[in-house]
Amino acid sequence: MQFNIISIFPEYYKGPLSCGTLRIAQEKGVVQIDIINPRDFTSDGIVDDYQFGGGAGMVMKLEPLLKAINSIKKEKSLIINFSPTGRVLTQDLVKKFVKEDNIILICGRYKGIDERLDRLFTLEEISIGDYVLSGGESASIVLMEAVTRLLPGVLGHIDSAEDDSLQNGLLSAPVYTRPANFRNHSVPEVLLSGNHQTIARWRRKRSIERTLKKRPELLDNVIFSRDDLEILLEVLNDKKS
Fold first, then answer.
1. For domain 181-240, which architecture applies?
2. Of 110, 120, 115, 31, which is closest to residue 70 (Cα–Cα)?
3. SS3 197
4. What is the mean pLDDT of each run of 10 residues along the chain (241 residues)?
5. Per the annotation, where are the binding residues for S-adenosyl-L-methionine?
6. Residues 16, 138: Cα–Cα separation, whole Å
7. Fewer C-beta within 10 Å: the chain N or C terminus?
8. Contact 139, 131 (CB under 8 A)
9. Residues forming the annotated binding site?
10. 113 phi and psi, to 5 degrees?
11. What is the pLDDT of residue 113?
12. Please, where in the chain does CATH 3.40.1280.10 lie?
């Protein structure tokens, strides 16, 4: 997979791209990440200008962005613009993006990007939440890491990704490691039993229970199996008692 980042702050990525999942994915050749600076497509390095109609804040100009995008755009490139007007990034969207071969990530700055950009390209607008950032760089890291960790060969064990929270629409079950008893707080006995079927059911129940308690709105989009419905009924009965 190819990620092309369009940003006026390429130095922002020195840390995030040199550690963790994104470093491993690049070293294994699973992903390639290039950074394109719109300033390189100007004669004076200026990529912003005053907004028509007045008001505080500068606006990113179209021409440098147009040239930057066209320098790396392929026929089937997915062009993502990070914007509060976009769809909120979810795990379902991440799984959709995994199927892409070439993704262009536009990182806006200042007051925003000239609105006419979406008349020049087909853009997928994405938001990572209802809060304000100074630019799209942080959002691009979030999206790249979320997508990259689902690509085959990146994580040490693919089950690690498949068991993650939200991967199947639910929050994941609690996890524990050694020691089995820490300051009189013990690991649930079932996890020490060695009975994989019992452990799997316990984890599924805790997953449903945790989602119901902390993120109940997620349950609206989950397709439950018959076993899941039995577990959900157990959870609801436990809650009443």
1. Orthogonal Bundle (1.10)
2. 120
3. helix
4. 98 96 97 98 97 94 98 97 95 96 97 95 96 96 97 78 70 93 95 96 95 93 93 92 76
5. 108, 128-133
6. 10
7. C
8. no
9. 108, 128-133
10. -105, 140
11. 96
12. 2-148
